[in-house]
């Protein structure tokens, strides 16, 4: 199975209101609620592609129970979340029907105790035994040490499980130094990590910091990838308009799917770009438009060289 | 015991953010979560005054479970809520730390089925047998007939249980016609019911529509009351600044508390005004500042005549 780790899971709530006006009272006209956090989105996309997926991370409180109930109704996703005393955070996206704009309210998440962090690491070590690949996704909840991902990367490498890291800031900086197989920063995370705003330059810089492969996601412009085997650019055939939330998570799902299917890098990148574009067409993170995905798969342009970058 | 009915219970969530900006992403710096809906606020105030209180109404889903868990930790309040298939609504109050303004997002609540409404009416009839008074509070959830409160008023009167109605719009109009012992409209509800913006005039008009006693809550200006025994005005000794949310619910609690304690009307009104002002000083609906309450109790000015109005 593929393992995805979401240390800061969330109950993602979407509200539609006629028009959001500060200081006014609003009647919510439509609402939706879904298990959230990057690793859970990645898992839902992987399961929809037919992979066996197990999710772990932390969950707690009434919001955590609601999340797990909904996860139990997600075919193909096995719940191996670790309980914590605090409550899983909610994220609220308020969609203004008049402007189409979204206003986001994010709870900070529960504070994880040292004992809970130790329990997670033990559970993670066990899960790695049957994992063909692992993705470490998203922000760290309060209480988890900033070097957490570096430790989780090392544990995966010690068991020879390919590991992908998708986070930002200091957790990314420390995690990269532990030599993950793949990191997938977006343009902003890449610039923050390397100080460079030139994408090829920054992608190569990031690789020198320790990652075996760096895949930079550049939104509508597709992906850049650099590793010891070569360097590639993968671009969608046309710009897709829609909701970009979850597009990066679908890139991660595409890369992992291509990895366990042992595809060559150009085909992995094509899968990731097609999935990402098909996710933009879906109103919800963690879901994608299958027809668009299949249609785009052969139309993603991958250019580059299978030589050392 | 005193029975309070909240057909549209809520999980009340308060978020503090640095500044609310539409279309931006916000980190919630502080959050609180409480059982909500007018009747639950009334019940918490009554319990804090030392009364035995039972709450009923509808509850369901993960949010309903969270609400009941929190209710179980509220001393003196007995949970007799009736389960529904849908989920209890959330209300979200977003407090802007920079301006102090509050922006409100209210979910509509679950749709109640005819079978659930029938189950509630049966449970309500049973609960009335041991009730010394009942308060019917707040809006109706989708699916409950607009004449619901009229039926609940009649059922209470048939069992000779004094009944107070606190709602608005068409449910208030129909409920008043069923001759409740007390209605407690605010200025806006009173004007909507009677078409008059002159408070004494409107209070008398409302009484002619069927209520035995009309207590109009006029915010910082206190209360007007009219019944067969007389008419009174009760005003706090000074204006209190704070959070007016829940002030009306504390008026209801004060009136019911005075009723079961068999206080004469002027003292019931003084209790209601003092509780209401002490609630404005508390950051949260359903709670009040006890020292302010006790200090104000003898300082509320009640003027009027114990003769027919």
Automatic annotation (TrEMBL), chains A, B:
Identify the Gene3D superfamilies for this entry: 3.40.1190.20
The answer to keyword Transferase applying to this record is yes
Q: Which GO terms describe its cellular component?
A: cytosol
GO BP terms in the entry: carbohydrate catabolic process; small molecule metabolic process
Q: Say yes or no: keyword Transferase present.
A: yes
Q: Which residues form the Carbohydrate kinase PfkB domain?
A: 10-285
GO MF annotation terms: ATP binding; phosphofructokinase activity
The UniProt keywords, alphabetically, are:
ATP-binding, Kinase, Nucleotide-binding, Transferase
According to its UniProt record, which protein family does this protein belong to? Belongs to the carbohydrate kinase PfkB family.
Q: What is this protein called?
A: Sugar kinase
Q: Source species, please?
A: Streptomyces avermitilis
Highest lineage ranks of the organism?
Bacteria, Bacillati, Actinomycetota, Actinomycetes, Kitasatosporales
């Amino acid at each position: 199975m593929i393992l995805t780790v979401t240390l800061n899971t969330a109950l993602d709530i979407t509200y539609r209101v006629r028009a959001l006006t500060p200081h006014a009272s609003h009647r919510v006209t439509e609402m939706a609620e879904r298990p959230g956090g990057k690793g859970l989105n990645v898992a839902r996309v992987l399961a929809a592609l037919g992979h066996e997926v197990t999710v772990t991370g932390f969950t707690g409180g009434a919001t955590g129970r609601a999340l797990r109930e909904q996860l139990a109704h997600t075919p193909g996703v096995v719940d191996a979340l670790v309980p914590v005393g605090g409550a899983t955070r909610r994220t609220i996206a308020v969609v203004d029907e008049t402007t189409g704009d979204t206003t986001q309210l994010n709870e900070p998440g529960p504070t994880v105790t040292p004992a809970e962090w130790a329990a997670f690491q033990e559970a993670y070590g066990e899960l790695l035994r049957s994992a063909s690949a692992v993705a470490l996704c998203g922000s760290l909840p309060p209480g988890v040490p900033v070097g957490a991902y570096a430790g989780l990367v090392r544990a995966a490498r010690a068991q020879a499980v390919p590991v992908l890291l998708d986070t930002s800031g200091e957790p990314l900086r420390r995690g990269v130094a532990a030599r993950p197989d793949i990191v997938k920063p977006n343009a902003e995370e890449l610039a923050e990590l390397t100080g460079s705003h030139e994408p090829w330059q920054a992608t190569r810089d990031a690789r020198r910091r320790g990652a075996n492969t760096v895949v930079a996601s550049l939104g509508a412009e597709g992906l850049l990838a650099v590793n010891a085997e070569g360097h590639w650019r993968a671009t969608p055939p046309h710009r897709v308009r829609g909701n970009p939330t979850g597009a990066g998570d679908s890139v991660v799902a595409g890369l992992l799917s291509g990895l366990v299917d042992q595809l060559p890098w150009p085909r992995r990148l094509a899968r990731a770009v097609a999935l990402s574009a098909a996710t933009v067409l879906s109103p919800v993170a963690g879901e994608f438009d299958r027809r668009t995905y299949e249609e785009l798969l052969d139309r993603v342009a991958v250019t580059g060289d299978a030589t050392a970058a």
